[in-house]
User: Fold this.
Amino acid sequence: MNREFAAGAVIFKRESGETLFLIIYSARNKIWGFPKGRIERGEAAKDAARREIQEETGLDNLRFISGFREEDVYEALSKRPPFKGEAIEKHVVYFLCETQDKNIIVDGKEITDYRFSTLSEAEKLIKFGNLKEILRRAYDFSKAV
Assistant:
């Protein structure tokens, strides 16, 4: 089976003693999730995550939290060449980032909405159990930071 590789991050901020997570809405996939995207040839996963976060949210003032790296592997239909329309094994690496920034800018085409949510609010919006588990691990990890 062909494989595709992507990188992104669970992004949080602390506000009034609460940890809030940034989740974004993908109009193409009709789901809530985290900023992520394809790793380009020769690009390191963390660099791809930083680029994708900036493209999808406008955020570039991020603090990557050392020690957190989660990989999500699942089967999907590719939506991009060279495997467009074919079943693939998708590998997504998620980092954990903290931001102080409140100015999120979504492109309105691929990403049409965003919100900073509490853990329980985010868990209700996120559809896939594997992403909920990554969110839960990120929450637990963020408490020790």
